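Reply to dn_fold:

You asked what the input looked like. This is it:
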Amino acid sequence: MKLVPVLCLMLVSAQAATLRHHNSPETKKKIKEPPVRATEAPSSRDFTFDLYRALVANSSGQNVFFSPLSISMSLAMLSLGAGSNTKEQILKGLGHSLQSSSEEELHKGFQKLLQELNQPTKGFQLNLGSALFTDPVVSIKEDFLRTMKTMYQADVFPTNFKNPEGARKQINDYVAKQTKDKIVNLIQNLGSNHVMVMVNYIFFKAKWQTAFSLENTRERDFHVTPETTVKVPMMSREDLYYYLLDRNLFCKVVGVPYQGNATAVLILPNQGKMEEVERGLNGKILRNWLQTFIKRKLELFLPKFSIEGSYQLEKILPRMGISEVFTSHANLSRLSNHSNIEISEMVHRAVVEVDEAGTRAAAVTKTNFMFRSARRVSQMIMFDRPFLLTIVENKNILFLGKVTKP
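and this is what came back:
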């Protein structure tokens, strides 16, 4: 079974202010719409793979795993409270502009996507949502709260940050519940100067369309580097899988479907070609792969693994041009009338587990590749060296990672 809980968290603090009393609004119930499952996360720039490259550069030789959907949604929500250059940087980073039509497109796109992804789905669990924990003594603007509720289905909870331990427990208990206890004790320390915590979570759990047999799992070598080899439990199965060979990007690509409408896309660079793949990979290429996959009989070897990623995004996003919001010069005038409120931390944490029981399947656009003809003879593909993993639902990249040390 595959469990993929992810959480993005922002800590908002106030520096020595006199704060007015504000009554916290009640939580808005989640909107229910007919299942359509066709919306793509709104963005015109390649935020997902730019962020991947920034995280890899900051995690040399380590596993990388994150949810671009969770992070981009958190930034979109944050832009609702930002003004002037602070807002412009966030929107530009997400591939949008300050023009009202572009900003409206961003928020309405996420609104529709949330409604679709949160519909009950046969075959896998996918829970996506947000919450605001706000101090009742802080005046959070009604327009901001209203839009957070209507566009992002955010729950709002009054929280007494003057009791840091109580606030920490309230938030950690909520996070543990939403991620089925896969992310616990997220907040270790909380100061009495904090006035708001924004949380965005995504939890995914699914079974492979066809499970791997436990009897076929064997200890095999995994080559972390040409010089370093470790033993890992390696699953194996001979079956029809989505497959292609990308000669331009020097990699093999295998799509393993889950029950339901989702796919694990596994990318195995040729020997010594990991950096070329990482530099060249983008959303357009991934969509081309999904559109041009062929089914082929493969003897697939895939390690069981459990990895997690934890990132301080206030240190990563400035490399992508999103910097002012994490400084004392941040303009958060649409969030509150208090000019001394600032973002003190933006944390993203993700956990993934892959074993014989499973996960899901997907599709997308275009063609530029040379494929080997699909013969009936099985081809063996062994993921016994570092590879990339992305989990796709329709056009949406839910998760993206690099498995360096299973």
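The chain is about 25% helix and 35% strand.
Hope that clears it up.
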